[in-house]
Amino acid sequence: MAYEVLARKWRPKGFDDVVGQEHVTRTLKNAIETGRVAHAYLFVGPRGIGKTSLARIFAKALDCEKGPTTTPCQECSMCREIAAGNSLDVLEIDGASNNGVDQVRDLRDQVQFAPTHGTFKIIIIDEVHMLSTAAFNALLKTLEEPPPHVKFIFATTEGDKVLPTIISRCQRFDLRRIQTPLIVERLRHICTEEHITIDDDALLAIARGAEGGMRDALSALDQLISFKGDSLTEEDVLAVFGLVSRRSLEALATAVLKGDMPEILRLVAMFDSAGKDMRRLTVELMEYFRNLLVYQYVGDAMSTLDATPEQIRSLAAQASLADAARVQQIADQLAEMEGRLRFALSVRTLIEMTLIRCARIANAVSLEEVLRRLNALRSEEPQVATARPPAAPAARPAGLYDDPLLKQVLQEFDGKIVDVEDGDD
């Protein structure tokens, strides 16, 4: 028997198996239960998050011999045929390779015939944005007034490329990237069922590398099993995919927040020597400081914070090292660097210089802090009443930096002021 990859073996079979898209599954289930199923749907979202799988589940729910139902039986001939992709009543079309007007005209002719076995004839077009303008126009009339037995389900990664006239005739659903904790939870369940031993740090590393796509996470897990067998560690994940460990990422963020320049340079050099993906490092640092910023504003609200409980504990420990405004500035610097990386002659140098700049920002002293400290010192000075001295001959006006209290404040902050220029004593 041929090996079935995990991404296919563990493809969602019912609405309850779909991870991270409750806003879509709940709406579709309610539409089935109330008999308010529209004639056309458009699923929009990044790759690997379940658009096509959701389309197949919806098709099974409509054409199941026990349906329409929100829980397809998975056992009848219609469910099995749809799952296998060979149903005569459910046509799956790749929009990238069938994007001409002739193919759409053939499709338009096919939908006029009643379904052979199921309740509906369902047309699933993947990557629908690849259809030509002429093909879209050929589809418009049928899409606007389809036969009562026809349902259209479109899927695309680029919803902005679909003609507005098509979108206006569909119910649009925007699928989200799956949050890291949900991917970790799903991977842990699959590994248990597949008798794979894997530690939590390895699961987290896989989820980080998947960038919100469950299919990418399962493909990565499959590759790791081929590499190491049924016992996996974080080191295996990092070695195969060139990622940086969570602890190393936290150490680098801490060095930036503390202004530890030697540690920053040491860590970057270590990552570069180990062959880590430096562009990927930049993206993960941006995500890390984003999570830190969110934590500083909302705390450990899991719905907003895309992090595991262990990550949240690390963020809590770092939240006091810099205020939210400085973290925002650091995130802005990293975002700007990420856009410049593609043109950089030396990626490592650009990252080092940017992180040093971020460290200076994290430990900079604002003008408001200088004035606050200066006013505090002046309020502590003893106020001694003295007689007004006689007028002295005109002398050179005292310069700003001749003020002894200001000199004391500047020495305390030791060159960390960023809002004013350093002056000569």
Q: What does this entry look like structurally?
A:
It is a single chain. This protein is of the alpha/beta class and 425 residues long. The chain has four domains: 6-174, Rossmann fold, CATH 3.40.50.300; 180-241, Helicase, Ruva Protein, domain 3, CATH 1.10.8.60; 246-362, Zinc Finger, Delta Prime, domain 3 (Up-down Bundle), CATH 1.20.272; 364-378 and 401-425, no CATH class. The protein has 19 helices and seven strands. The protein has helices at 6-9, 22-34, 51-63, 77-84, 101-110, 133-144, 164-167, 180-193, 200-210, 214-228, 234-241, 246-258, 261-273, 278-298, 309-318, 324-340, 347-362, 367-380, 404-413, and strands at residues 40-44, 90-94, 121-126, 150-156, 171-174, 197-198, 231-232. The strands form two sheets. It has a five-stranded parallel β-sheet, with helices on one face. The chain is elongated, with a radius of gyration of 30 Å. The termini are far apart. Residues 394-398 and 417-425 have low confidence and may be disordered.
Defining traits:
425 residues, alpha/beta, Rossmann fold, Helicase, Ruva Protein, domain 3, Zinc Finger, Delta Prime, domain 3, two-stranded parallel ribbon, 19 helices, 53% helix, elongated
Question: What's the quick description here?
Answer:
By secondary structure, the protein is of the alpha/beta class.
Using the alpha-carbon principal axes, give the shape.
elongated
The CATH architecture assignment of the largest domain turns out to be: 3-Layer(aba) Sandwich
Strand/helix succession: HHEHHEHEHEHEHEHHEHHHHHHHHH
Q: In percent, how helical is the residue content?
A: 40-55%
Count of DSSP H/I helices: 19
Sequence stretches where pLDDT stays below 50 over 5 or more residues: 394-398, 417-425
Q: Please provide the count of β strands.
A: 7
According to CATH, the fold-level topology of the largest domain is Rossmann fold
Give the full name of the CATH homologous superfamily of the largest domain.
P-loop containing nucleotide triphosphate hydrolases
Structural class: alpha/beta
The tally of domains stands at 4
State the distance separating the first and last CA atoms: 83 Å
Strand proportion = 5-15%
**CATH C-level label of the largest domain:** Alpha Beta
